[in-house]
Every structure is written in structure tokens, then in C-alpha cells.
Amino acid sequence: MPFWSFFCCGRCSDWKEQRRKDSNSWRIFSLKELQSATNNFNYDNKLGEGGFGSVYWGQLWDGSQVVGTALGVRDCDLQLLWLVENLGNVRWCSLVPCEKACSGRKAVIAVKRLKVWSNSEQEEFAAKVETLGRVKHKNLLSFRGYCAEGQEHLILYDYMPNLSLQSHLHGYSSDECLLDWGRRMSIAIGTAEGITHLHQQATPIIHQDIKASNVLLDSGFLARVADFGFVKLIPDGANHLTTNAKSALGYLTPEYIKSGKASESCDVYSFGILLLELVSGKRPIDKNLSIIDWALPLVKERKYREVADARLNGDYIEEELKRVVIVALNCAEKTPEKRPKMPEVTSLLKGASEEKLSSLENEMFKTKPLVSYQGTSTPVEISEDVLQEQTALKK
Predict the structure, then answer these.
(1) Torsion of CA 35, 39, 42, 48, to 10 degrees
(2) What pLDDT score was predicted for residue 7?
(3) Beta-carbon neighbour count of residue 66 at 10 Å?
(4) Potential cystine with 167: which of 163, 198, 224, 302 (Cβ 3.0-4.6 Å)?
(5) Catalytic residue, candidates 158, 180, 209, 315
(6) Given this model, what pLDDT does residue 261 score?
(7) What tens digit of pLDDT does each residue of 196-205 get?
(8) Rounded to whole angstroms, how far apart are CA atoms 58 and 166?
(9) Is 227 a catalytic residue?
(10) Which residues form a coiled coil (predicted)?
(11) What is the dihedral of CA 252, 255, 261, 267, to 10 degrees?
(12) Is the pLDDT of residue 247 over 50?
């Protein structure tokens, strides 16, 4: 019997039981269960809202770690449990008294409530979630559970205690400077390996939403790429330009802006922007200047040190910094055909083929600057890519 037929014939409980037997890490939740966990999706439980839907915090009584971790914080009377996450460009934060998280066998969870779907699309949604749920890799944040009842479609994940890359680069954790150079290299390579795994599936999965807020960090700062395949879960006819425009600004390829058609090469481009963001600490677009247009003139003058995040205080390996920057700019080539494939990107980040890296660097010095500068830091006009993105996203 097909997976989705359980929804049609009313044997949902039988299916849940079978899935529990098949995998200890997967679970189908009832709407009633998640309504109870989130206080009926109460506004006070709402953590944020983005292009794909809203996120709520909640608590489950069974203490299961399939959807989150009950954080065992001591001295509960003196501490608060912070739940901080990024959804799109929305940074959300909720204070939850620790006594709630520590009492009994409760587990703190985050529930992503997707945009409304029609009942006729329920089987399609369930089948797509099941397919994406089978994709496993140490650098991917796999689905841990979901609910599909009527027009309600919700997805649950593991809780990542070190939040997202976005929060450490630009959010409330940025002042703590927890991302030393070793962690940044680990995040770069781990994210590349996660995306590579998606592209190497029998039917390649195009992420379509690679950005700092979708790179989550576990307790050891291991990168876990989140929300992969999410575009498959939204109704037909929707894309970045209609659902997630603001948060995607700076990560979109020129060809996607023009056509709306995604490809593996689009993921490579977005990853290149992410790499520059990771090593420099700058946002993809700052004061109408794209991070590419800011970095390329410095690289042409071999001023790699000026690309490095000032918060590193010079504590990095220069050859690794140079390698990451060159790979990033190669990934972010305007022409799709010039971009490398993700397996090659991963290999280069790990230090393979110094000859190839040298060739890429020499090729960069042959190209013309993307923006006219007075000195090395003051742009005299808005970069062309930024203008194209802003125009497309306003339509």
C-alpha cells in the first residue's frame, strides 16, 4: 500500500505505529498533540514568521528527543531558557522559564507551521516529506516529525543548542566571538559536504535557500544544513521571489532572478556568498554593496587580510583564508558554466589541488572590477547585482 494511502483510508494510527517500528528517529504527530504543545498556536508562543510560514515553541510531555532536547539547566529558579532561531531574515527570541523545560519529562520543541495547503494536496505533502525525511547525513538537519491534517502542515526538527550561523555572525551571539578560525573552517567544509550530499542523490535535491540562517550548529558547532527541499513543500507557483524574498536578498543568482528557474549551480553561487559571509563577518549586502563587489577589489590587490573578520583579531591561518576566499569567488561567478560542482568545492576547501587553486586565483586577476571605487573601500554607485535583485524582488 502506498505511503499516502494511509491518510486516505483513515488508518493514520496504524501508519504512525508502523513508522515508530521502522525508525526511532521519525514520528508523525497528531494536530491535537501539537496544539496542546504550543498552547493552540498561541500568539505568545510565536517565535517568528518568514516566507515559508511561522515558528512556535512548545513542549512535549514524553521527553522524546526526536523533535528537540529537554535542556537540563540547573538552578532553574535563577536561569531562563533562551530559544533563539532565524527564519528567513526574521530573528526571533523567546524567554521560557527553565522550570517549564526541566519539569517532568518535557521536551522543548520548535514547530514550523507552513503556509496553508488545500486538503487535496495532503497526500502530495506527506509523500514529499517522507522522501526528504529519508535523506540522512551528519551535516544535514533531517526532519524528525511532521503533521498533516486538513489544512495544517507542520514540521519538527532536532533542537540545535548553538543556534544558527546567522546568530553568531550578525545576531545576539555575535558579540561573544565564539566562532574562531578552526570552527569557521569546520563549518565551511561541513556545509559543503551537506550540500554535496543533496546534489548526489539519485534524484538531486536542489536546496534553493542556502543562507546563514539555514546553517544550524549543534553542541560541538558541527554545521547542519536546514530547510533543504523546502521549496518542494510550498504550493505550486511559489518561489523565492514570492515567499522568501527579503531573506534571500544577496544570495540569489543573476539567472534565477531573471528566470525563476533553480539549478545545482544556483546552490553553488549561494554557497559562495555564504563562504564570504563566514570569513568576513559581513552581510551579503551592506549599504547597497554586494559582498562580492566588496571582496573582489581587495583580492585583486592580494589584500586577503582585509577580507578577514576583524573579530578574529588576526588569529587565522593565512593560506586557509586565501583558499576559502578564492573558492568563494569562484562559486559566485556570474556565468553559471564557470562555477564548480559541489564535490570539487568540497575538495578544494579541504586543501586538495593547490595547482587548481593557483589557476583560479590567476584567472581572477584577468577580470575587470565589478564596481568603480575611489580608493579601496568607497563605492561610487550601487552594484549592478544589487539593483537587479531589488528590482526583481519588488515585482
Answers:
(1) -80
(2) 38
(3) 20
(4) 163
(5) 209
(6) 87
(7) 999 999 889 9
(8) 23
(9) no
(10) none
(11) -50
(12) yes
